[in-house]
C-alpha cells in the first residue's frame, strides 16, 4: 500500500522490494514530524526542532564500510585501508536477507537530488525504515519539485535499514553494522547503525567516484561568495574551523561541506547542513546556533530535559559528536541557488597543535597539491584537560580520505589543473597553537584568524613583503591588518628557539613519512614541494 500523492511511477519493485506493508512517498516535513512522534522515534524540543538518539552508534562506522569488488569499477578504485573490497556473492546473500526482512514493514521514500547544478545533478532515492532518517534525507539533499516526482527515476538508490543486523561470520562484515556501496548495481546498503551521517557520506562517496571521471572535481570543503562575486573554498578536517570561518556575515554561504567544481564553477552537492553542535556558542556562531531553535532541524544525540523540552548543547554525556541536520534555508545568509563562479581563493585549514605552522602562508600550485594530498591537522593526544598531552598528527588525503574512492592524486591533479587555469590564490591557514605546542603555547585567537582570512580574500596580502619558511618552503606574509606582526613568524613566538626547531623538524618528518604512500604515483615536483627536515635545509 502506498501513501502520498507524490509517488514516482518508478516503483519499489524495481529495487526488488515487494510485500511491504505501507510505503510513504515523499512526505513533507510536518507530516514526517507527525510520523516521528507517532512512532516514538524522537521528541519535539522547545521552539520546534526534533531530538533523536542513535544508540551506541554515534559516529561514522569507518571499519564497516565496503565497496563491492566488481569488474566495472575495480580498476578505478583506490583499494586499501579506506576502500575495502566486498565480494559480489556475499553482497547478494546479504541483500536477499535484507529484502526478506523488509517484508511486512513500513517504508519511507524520499526522491531527491545530489548536486545543485541542474545539468550535473544525480537523481537519487533514499528508502528508510524510520521517519526521522527520511526527514534527514529531505533536509540534507536537494528536494525535487513536486511536479517532477512522478517521473523521478533514481540513478542511485540508498537503502537504510538500521534495525537489520549483519552476521559477520556469514556476511564477511567487520561487525553487525555495514555500509556497502555497489557501483555496478547503483545501490548503497546501510544496516546496523542509526547514525544519520552514513546516509550523507555514502552519497558523497558515490559522487567522488562518478564526477572526477567527468572532469568535475568533487571536494570535501565549505564555500562562500563575497559581494563582488569572488568565491572562496575552505578545506579542513574536523576542528580546524571550516564551518565557522565560511559562515561569515560579510559573505554569502554556498554550502558548508561538499561541493563540485565543474567548467561552469562551484556548486553545492547538498540542500542542507550537518553541523557539529557540541558547546555551540550563540556569540561565536549565531547563525548555526539559531538553527537549533527552529522547526525542521534534527538534533542528533543532543541532551534534552524531557519535562521542559529545553536543550543543553554543552552536555556531551551521550557523545562529543552531537549534530544538527537542517535545510540550508535555515541559514539566513545562504544562497538560494547554491551555485557560483570559479573560486578566486582556496584556503586549506589546519589546527596545528604542535605550534610550528605559520598562521597564514601563500602556497604555489604544486605546494597546494602536496598539502591537499596530505590533508594535515593535529589533534590533542589524550583528553583536552590533560595539559601537556602530546598532540597527534592526523593526515587525511584530500581532507576527506574516508570518502575518496579514486587515488588521491587523481583529485589533486584535477585541483591543480583548475587552480592554474583560473589563476586561483592558495593559502594555508593554521587555526591551532602559537608560542609553543598545546599545553605551553596558546590557541591563535579566532579574531586574528578571521582578520587573516579577510585580508587574503580582499587582496590585502597581495603586496605585503613575505619571508620564505626554511622548512616548509612556502611564503609567509610579514604583516597583516589587525594582526600583531610578531604572530606571523611562529618561531619568533617561542621562548625556546631550539625547541621550536626540534618540533618543526619532527612534524616535517611526519609529513614525509605520510607522503611515502603516494610516491609511486606522483611526479617528482610534488614530492619536492613538501617540507625538508633541518638536516636537509642546512646540508648536514
In short:
With 540 residues, this protein is α/β, with parallel strands linked by helices.
Explain what the structure shows.
With 540 residues, this protein is an alpha/beta fold. The protein folds into 3 domains: 2-41 and 59-214, Phosphoenolpyruvate Carboxykinase, domain 1, CATH 3.40.449.10; 217-262 and 342-538, Alpha-Beta Complex (Phosphoenolpyruvate Carboxykinase, domain 3); 272-330, Phosphoenolpyruvate Carboxykinase, domain 2. The protein is 24% helix and 24% strand. Strands 1, 2, 5, 6, 7, 8, 9, 10, 11 and 12 form a 10-stranded mixed β-sheet that branches. A hairpin with a 7-residue loop joins strand 7 and strand 8 (122-128). The longest helix has 19 residues, at 497-515.
CATH class of the largest domain: Alpha Beta
**Protein structure class:** alpha/beta
Counting copies of identical and different chains, the oligomeric state is single chain
At CATH level 2, the architecture of the largest domain is Alpha-Beta Complex
- β-strand percent reads 15-25%
Radius of gyration: 24 Å
Low-confidence stretches: 382-388
CATH fold topology of the largest domain: Phosphoenolpyruvate Carboxykinase, domain 3
Largest sheet: 10 strands, mixed
Q: Which term fits the overall shape? A: globular
On the 0-100 scale, what is the average pLDDT?
A: 94
